[in-house]
Amino acid sequence: MTHILHRQIHAKLPLAVGGSGVELFDAEGRAYIDASGGAAVSCLGHGHVDVIEAIKAQTEKLAYAHTSFFTNEPAERLADRLIAGAPEGISHVYFVSGGSEANEAALKMARQYFVEKGELQRRNIIARRQSYHGNTLGTLATGGNEWRRDPFRPLLIDTHHIDPCYAYRYRKPGESEEDYAARAAGALEEKILELGPETVMAFVAEPVVGATAGAVPPVAGYFGRIREICDRYGVLLLLDEVMCGMGRTGTMHACEQDGVAPDLMTIAKGLGGGYQPIGAVLLSREIFDAFANGSGFFQHGHTYICHPVACAAALAVQEVIERDDLLANVRSMGTYLRERLEARFGNHPHVGDIRGRGLFLGLELVADRSTKEPFDPALKLNARIKKEAMARGLMIYPSGGTIDGSRGDHVLLAPPFILDEVS
Ligand code: PLP
Question: Which cofactors is this protein said to need (predicted)?
């Protein structure tokens, strides 16, 4: 009998007691290969000595200092490191404890930026269907997953959604990539014009869509056009790299591969690799200057922002990634894993698409390959896949359902960057 309100109240969860490398162990001595990094979190795998040592050392030195009184060394060093590797124009960092908090803070930054500039009418958020940006009220309203939003709808602010760039589902037969990129991005322009450009605050998107669509990368040229449209109408581009960022796609930031720089970017999961809860907003010089030259403060805050131990853990994770050249491993192992998936499932009657970037790969499951007909959601395929995989000692991340029109079931793979061909 547990006193924890678990997500799945009736599920009998194994008790995790340890982890090493790409494996987790339960109290009964069973090992599980972590092929999903939990939920794309454990980028260094489990039990990494360097990170553990950094956490110990920081805890002994300073565990906590409230940010209204102090700054602290690991937070300053982590900020320097993140800015040194950030997309063009990004100049500052705001540390929080996870992805939802990061997106919530980023939305408030976007709003306050326009308040500082006197553009008080800019309040509309445009995001995409089949997206997930977090479970707090603001981020839930922003995400386009109807199933997650449904019970809470009366509490959510109004937001607006366009179709994602999802070639497998939405590219028309015979349509070139370029034409599809133009059409998919054009939906943003149409929505901005419909709402009135002077009312639109931000466009929010995951460069590679994770949990709600199964590692869906954009087609070439899509984000370049999105950037142009945002610039044309003075709309801020907020890229949510909570899941796809921090090296998961083979470059530090997924958007590097699309040649765009956002005004705001959120990161979490792989930032601390699960060793501590941490997330961050990266913001542009322009936004920072509007705050600095305006009210002089950001009207937001949480008790654990810039947490020294969380920042020390993230710093250690990021140093290991650089020292061990793990992004090169993400690229080569990503290619290897994809080839293996294609060899094994490429002709499978129920695998419609295999896609992704780096070690962020997705399989879309279909009832019928030729029609792309999804499985009946009543089958609850994702829950069954997860259960079967766990019974075989494998952690994968299935998601899906058709309730919100996010057609299809998917399996997401996001193994640790330390993966080798043997594991
Ligand atoms: N944004 C994306 C793209 C995510 O995948 C997630 C979590 O899965 C979040 C935001 C929310 O992050 P967290 O669960 O750390 O609050």
Answer: pyridoxal 5'-phosphate
How does pLDDT run across 288-305, given as a tens digit for each residue? 999 999 999 999 999 999
**Is 144 in contact with 162 (CB distance < 8 Å)?**
no
- Taking CA atoms only, the protein residue closest to ligand 1 atom 5 is 243
Q: Is any ligand 1 atom within 6 A of the Cβ of residue 133?
A: yes
Going from the Cα of 401 to the center of ligand 1, the distance in angstroms, rounded, reads 19
CA 74 to the chain's CA centroid: 24
Supply the ipTM of this predicted assembly: 0.99
Indicate which atom in ligand 1 lies nearest the CA of residue 277. 15
Q: Could you tell me if the CB of 239 is within 6 A of ligand 1? A: no
Q: Which structure tokens are listed for 56? A: 């110990």
Residue-wise pLDDT tens digits, 133-188: 999 999 999 999 888 888 999 999 999 999 999 999 999 999 999 999 999 999 99
- Residue 403's pLDDT band, with cuts at 50, 70 and 90, is very low
What's the CA gap between 158 and 137, in Å, rounded? 11
Q: Is the CB of 210 under 6 A from ligand 1?
A: yes
pLDDT at 182 (0 to 100): 98
Distance 133 CA to ligand 1 centre (A): 6
Residue-level pLDDT at 146: 84
**Contact 242 CB / ligand 1 (< 6 Å):** yes
Pocket probe mutation, ligand 1, options 139, 209, 243, max atoms within 8 Å of Cβ:
243
What is the Å distance from ligand 1's center to 11 Cα?
A: 22
> 104: Cβ below 6 Å to ligand 1?
no
Residue 186: count other Cβ atoms within 10 Å of its Cβ: 13
Domains of the chain: 16-45+327-413 (3.90.1150.10), 54-323 (3.40.640.10)
Give just the sign of the alpha carbon dihedral 72, 75, 79, 81: positive
Does 246 contact ligand 1 (Cβ within 6 A)? Answer: no
Report residue 73 CA to chain centroid gap: 27
What is the model's pLDDT at position 8? 87
Cα–Cα distance between 97 and 85 in angstroms, integer? 21
Please name the amino acid found at residue 116.
E
How far is the centre of ligand 1, averaged over its atoms, from the C-alpha of 145 (Å)?
13
Does residue 352 surpass a pLDDT of 50?
Answer: yes
245 touches ligand 1 (CB under 6 Å)? no
CB 95 within 8 A of CB 106: no
What is the band of 363 on the pLDDT scale with cuts at 50, 70, 90?
very high
How far is 346 from 339, CA to CA, in rounded Å? 9
